[in-house]
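Ticket #4471: structure output looks truncated?

Reporter: J.K.
Steps to reproduce: submitted the chain below (467 residues) through the standard prediction queue, then opened the result file.
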Amino acid sequence: MRKLIFVQREIEDKPGVMALCTYLKSHGFSAEIILEPYKNIRKIKNIKPDFIGFYVVSSAVNWTLDLCRYLKKQLPDMSTILGGPHPTFYPNVIEQDGCDIICIGEGEKALVHLMQSYDGTLSSIENTPNFWLKKNGTIIKNSLSPLLTKEELSALPPCDRSHYLKHAGIRKSPLRRVITSRGCPYSCSYCFNSRYKELYKGLGTMVRQRSVDNVMEELKEVKKLGTKAIDFNDDQFLLSRDWILEFCEEYRKFINIPFVCGSTANRITHEIVATLKSAGCRSINFGIESGVERIRKEIYNKPTSNDHIYNAADVLHAHNMRFLTYNMIGLPEENLEHVFQTVRINQEIKTDYPWCSIVQPYPGTDIAGSMLKGEINPQVKFSYSYFQSSVIGDPEKQKIVSNSQKLFAHFVKHNTDFDSFARLVQSHSVKIHFYPLIFYWHYGLGVRQRFSYTWLGLFRYWLYTRS
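Returned output as attached by the reporter:
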């Protein structure tokens, strides 16, 4: 029997990896997920996989390639497969030592095709759709197969979580992640969805939502695990009014566990929020990104106006629904006034959880093309976390961006004025060493409140996610 294992660094359950693993097993192949691969090398060697797969985001590509090279020394007869956003939008990663094969786009049918065709030689899989592979110094490039249809998506088996539950950090977590749809109707410049639509043009419908029955089938299994909170990780959970109304009715009957979900501000209405709250929704997330409407629309290509943001906040407050706002800082053209406008709009709408990241122009995103021409470090190496570092070349600007991000929630929750904001983010004093602690306090408090963590559980969560 052909064997494939997925390995990952993060101590968290990844719905996409679970879906691939489950789909392979449903077709009779051996598939397993292994966390902390350096600690589990003996287990990996005992399995003797034909392939080792990685879900790769741009911030993790260097770690992934280092691990690929290490594993190939340990298991010279196996092949590495890199899938996910980075190889999809930066396929030249296949040229790197340690990477044998890349999967571009959706992986379910492609992986099954690969496993069915493989006879132990690369020649047997060199024509597999969605895959690029190296053979005798040549890179073979195959075209994409069509996207899964809505009906095919709704027929996928419920995710097998047993692989992740072997790890105590995940097993003891009160939180489970679920994805009910694929695709996003928007094309924000910092997100991969814009390029994804170009990639799959003419190859199917991009935005697809699983049937309510199919989602409920998975959620009933999730409930059996003693889950106390569910995080719906969809790019856009509020895709369809009718779907939400049907979903909430079924969720109340069969699941009845607190959950959080995400949307865009313009889709947040009184009817939808009231329905979500009646089903147990604890918090709704939506993106502001920048308090400067011009930056939000023209640079980030996010079709959200200030009026949308204020109206959404009014609706959420009217229903006593907590909400998280996503924000970004770190564009080369941003100045102190621009950053403070982002702080200020969050103050005005009284967000419960002001979340702020640092702009990372990942390869393949539209924003990368514009930022890479600007004032950024030409030797840019992306941080593993979008909370840690800026790609801007000017050290003084880097410091301001970092300090602003670390203190963002503090500024919002304490209604800090511009003068105090400017003084603190430009500070060179010893107190800046405490800024990360302020960030982690607000971030941790938000995680605890939204996902039912105890303080001890939150500390474990922090330890595991930093491993």
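Triage note (M.O.): checked the attachment and the full token line is present. The CA atoms of residues 106 and 147 lie 7 Å apart.
Status: closed, working as intended.
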